[in-house]
Amino acid sequence: MKTERLVHMANQIADFFAAYPREEAVAGVADHLKKFWDPRMRTALISHAQSGGAGLRDLVRAAIPKLDSHREGRAGFEVRQPPDPSLPR
Protein backbone atom coordinates (compact mmCIF):
# COMPACT_ATOMS: atom_id res chain seq x y z
CA MET A 1 0.00 0.00 0.00
CA LYS A 2 1.31 3.45 -0.86
CA THR A 3 2.59 5.61 1.97
CA GLU A 4 0.26 8.45 0.99
CA ARG A 5 -2.73 6.14 1.45
CA LEU A 6 -1.50 4.98 4.88
CA VAL A 7 -1.00 8.60 5.95
CA HIS A 8 -4.51 9.50 4.75
CA MET A 9 -6.07 6.54 6.59
CA ALA A 10 -4.11 7.21 9.81
CA ASN A 11 -5.13 10.87 9.68
CA GLN A 12 -8.79 9.88 9.32
CA ILE A 13 -8.46 7.82 12.51
CA ALA A 14 -6.85 10.82 14.23
CA ASP A 15 -9.68 13.06 13.03
CA PHE A 16 -12.19 10.72 14.66
CA PHE A 17 -10.38 10.83 18.01
CA ALA A 18 -9.60 14.57 17.86
CA ALA A 19 -12.61 15.44 20.05
CA TYR A 20 -11.35 13.23 22.89
CA PRO A 21 -9.00 14.45 25.63
CA ARG A 22 -5.43 14.26 24.27
CA GLU A 23 -4.19 11.18 26.17
CA GLU A 24 -7.37 9.29 25.37
CA ALA A 25 -7.14 10.35 21.73
CA VAL A 26 -3.51 9.18 21.39
CA ALA A 27 -4.38 5.87 23.05
CA GLY A 28 -7.42 5.50 20.79
CA VAL A 29 -5.39 6.04 17.63
CA ALA A 30 -2.71 3.58 18.77
CA ASP A 31 -5.29 1.01 19.83
CA HIS A 32 -7.12 1.22 16.50
CA LEU A 33 -3.89 0.81 14.54
CA LYS A 34 -2.85 -2.18 16.69
CA LYS A 35 -6.21 -3.90 16.39
CA PHE A 36 -7.19 -3.25 12.81
CA TRP A 37 -4.06 -2.61 10.76
CA ASP A 38 -1.95 -5.36 9.31
CA PRO A 39 1.53 -5.48 10.91
CA ARG A 40 3.08 -4.55 7.56
CA MET A 41 0.94 -1.41 7.44
CA ARG A 42 2.00 -0.44 10.96
CA THR A 43 5.64 -1.07 10.10
CA ALA A 44 5.36 1.12 6.99
CA LEU A 45 3.70 3.88 9.03
CA ILE A 46 6.43 3.69 11.69
CA SER A 47 9.12 3.86 9.00
CA HIS A 48 7.41 6.87 7.43
CA ALA A 49 7.24 8.60 10.81
CA GLN A 50 10.90 7.87 11.49
CA SER A 51 11.86 9.42 8.16
CA GLY A 52 10.11 12.68 8.97
CA GLY A 53 6.44 11.71 8.88
CA ALA A 54 5.36 14.18 6.22
CA GLY A 55 1.62 14.77 6.33
CA LEU A 56 0.93 12.95 9.60
CA ARG A 57 -1.36 14.66 12.09
CA ASP A 58 -0.05 15.32 15.58
CA LEU A 59 -2.19 12.57 17.15
CA VAL A 60 -0.78 9.98 14.75
CA ARG A 61 2.78 11.12 15.49
CA ALA A 62 2.06 10.83 19.22
CA ALA A 63 0.62 7.32 18.78
CA ILE A 64 3.63 5.99 16.82
CA PRO A 65 5.82 5.24 19.88
CA LYS A 66 3.00 3.11 21.27
CA LEU A 67 3.08 0.97 18.10
CA ASP A 68 6.78 0.20 17.99
CA SER A 69 6.50 -2.75 20.38
CA HIS A 70 3.62 -4.14 18.33
CA ARG A 71 5.53 -4.98 15.20
CA GLU A 72 5.23 -8.38 13.63
CA GLY A 73 5.75 -11.12 16.15
CA ARG A 74 4.67 -8.99 19.12
CA ALA A 75 0.94 -8.39 18.66
CA GLY A 76 -0.37 -11.92 18.76
CA PHE A 77 1.34 -12.96 15.56
CA GLU A 78 3.68 -15.90 15.66
CA VAL A 79 6.92 -15.49 13.78
CA ARG A 80 8.10 -18.88 12.62
CA GLN A 81 11.73 -19.57 11.94
CA PRO A 82 12.59 -21.48 8.79
CA PRO A 83 13.53 -25.10 9.47
CA ASP A 84 17.21 -25.80 9.99
CA PRO A 85 18.34 -27.62 6.83
CA SER A 86 21.04 -29.45 8.77
CA LEU A 87 18.46 -31.28 10.92
CA PRO A 88 16.83 -34.50 9.67
CA ARG A 89 13.15 -34.23 8.82
Topology:
Elements: H1 3-17, H2 22-36, H3 39-50, H4 58-67
Helix pairs in contact: 1-2, 2-4, 3-4
- Specify the overall morphology: elongated
Beta-strand percentage range:
under 5%
Counted up, domains total: 1
Portion of residues within helices: 55-70%
Q: What are the secondary-structure elements, in order, as H or E?
A: HHHH
Q: Determine Rg (CA atoms, Å).
A: 16 Å
Low-confidence residue ranges: 70-79
Q: What's the average pLDDT? A: 85
Give me the secondary-structure category: mainly alpha
Tally of DSSP β-strands: 0
Number of helices: 4
In whole angstroms, the N-to-C terminal distance is 38 Å
The biggest beta sheet is recorded as: none
What do you see in this structure?
With 89 residues, this protein is mainly alpha-helical. It has one domain. It has helices spanning 3-17, 22-36, 39-50, 58-67. Helix 1 crosses helix 2. It is elongated. Residues 70-79 have low confidence and may be disordered.
Key descriptive features of the protein:
0% strand, 89 residues
Summarize the structure.
By secondary structure, the chain is mainly alpha-helical. The chain is 58% helix and 0% strand.
